[in-house]
Amino acid sequence: MSSGSQRRNAVLGAAFLMATSAIGPGFLTQTATFTNELLASFGFVILISILLDIGAQLNIWRIIVVSGKRAQEIANTVFPGAGYFLSALVVMGGLAFNIGNVGGAGLGLNSIFGLSPELGAVISGIVAILVFLRKEAGIVMDRFAQLMGFVMIALTLYVMFKTDPPVADALHRTFIPEQINPITIVTLVGGTVGGYITFAGAHRLLDAGIQGERALPEVSRSSVTAILIASIMRVILFLAVLGVVSKGIALNAGNPAETPFAYVAGSAGKIIFGIVIWAASITSVIGAAYTSVSFISGFSSVVAKYRNQWIIAFIVISTIVLVAIGKPEKVLILVGTLNGFILPIALGLILLAASNHHIVGNYKHPVWMTLSGWIVVIAMGILSIKTLYESFGKLFV
């Protein structure tokens, strides 16, 4: 990096890229839906998911930065072919999610300006493409993610205070829940650090030239900051929704996350929500495209040379599919859960790499961090299998 200021901006940008990649339309809908189902006890699910998120992300970011290699390159070194398998999972999940992200951006412009969702999706796709047409696309992406992150949190925070949520009850049930649903934990962790999301910031750091053991203190801070940014948004929206459902107000079945905004400010509230969901969606479009292509650029010199063009093509394909077939809500929900299955596979490979001198050199990964990582692998593996069993069980009832 040419200066300390640029380096700090890259580190903060990586945190916001990861956080805003996590905060998409699915994130908003899931948070509202689960709050309606579990009420104040959803706070416990959020708490557990935050702990699992941090355990996963700290390990993944540190090993990637120490090694100076992307996740797929590390995986291929651990087990030949594992990197190709991981890349296929991430890219397929990223594409499916991006179709939903483009759809969410279209709905946002529909709420703000009254445009058709399809036209809104096309305009949003063009906005995302413009980022990668710039020579300094990385810097533009960092600043855009930061701006959109602040906008989302500020507007939702305003709505949260206006709904007057039962904060004391939420705090109590965060530690002593009345009900626990393992599927919600898998879905939240998968939606925050599953699939492509946790790699977004780590790969961005490598692209910014931040790597090696000397960078670990700032990398650790950045990785935890990213989780906290996403979690702050989750908690604020949880409280905003809890504020309305605790008053006996039913959520809008078609757009549950919009309900507290409409409750607070009527038609103006819908416009505010439109801004929030557009900001959440457009940053997720950018993050998904950038990270998905980073998983294949290492396998092809052509992709690496023309990476921005490939990212643009990824966005174009997502937009065309969305406009052609509509928002694939069932696919989006399924992939959100499947992201939880990808996490134990990816994290397990990264943890095996932590003790491989061919990957990390003389670096000694902290024992407590390794143990916490394996706890996440085991916990998410068990919860994912349980989720899969229950989901298939419902199909045959």
UniProtKB/TrEMBL annotation:
<dbReference type="GO" id="GO:0015086">
    <property type="term" value="F:cadmium ion transmembrane transporter activity"/>
</dbReference>
<feature type="transmembrane region" description="Helical">
    <location>
        <begin position="112"/>
        <end position="132"/>
    </location>
</feature>
<dbReference type="InterPro" id="IPR001046">
    <property type="entry name" value="NRAMP_fam"/>
</dbReference>
<feature type="transmembrane region" description="Helical">
    <location>
        <begin position="331"/>
        <end position="354"/>
    </location>
</feature>
<dbReference type="Pfam" id="PF01566">
    <property type="entry name" value="Nramp"/>
</dbReference>
<feature type="transmembrane region" description="Helical">
    <location>
        <begin position="82"/>
        <end position="100"/>
    </location>
</feature>
<feature type="transmembrane region" description="Helical">
    <location>
        <begin position="271"/>
        <end position="296"/>
    </location>
</feature>
<feature type="transmembrane region" description="Helical">
    <location>
        <begin position="366"/>
        <end position="389"/>
    </location>
</feature>
<dbReference type="GO" id="GO:0005886">
    <property type="term" value="C:plasma membrane"/>
</dbReference>
<keyword id="KW-1133">Transmembrane helix</keyword>
<feature type="transmembrane region" description="Helical">
    <location>
        <begin position="308"/>
        <end position="325"/>
    </location>
</feature>
<keyword id="KW-0472">Membrane</keyword>
<feature type="transmembrane region" description="Helical">
    <location>
        <begin position="38"/>
        <end position="61"/>
    </location>
</feature>
<keyword id="KW-0812">Transmembrane</keyword>
<feature type="transmembrane region" description="Helical">
    <location>
        <begin position="181"/>
        <end position="202"/>
    </location>
</feature>
<feature type="transmembrane region" description="Helical">
    <location>
        <begin position="223"/>
        <end position="251"/>
    </location>
</feature>
<dbReference type="GO" id="GO:0005384">
    <property type="term" value="F:manganese ion transmembrane transporter activity"/>
</dbReference>
<dbReference type="GO" id="GO:0034755">
    <property type="term" value="P:iron ion transmembrane transport"/>
</dbReference>
<protein>
    <submittedName>
        <fullName>Divalent metal cation transporter</fullName>
    </submittedName>
</protein>
<feature type="transmembrane region" description="Helical">
    <location>
        <begin position="144"/>
        <end position="161"/>
    </location>
</feature>
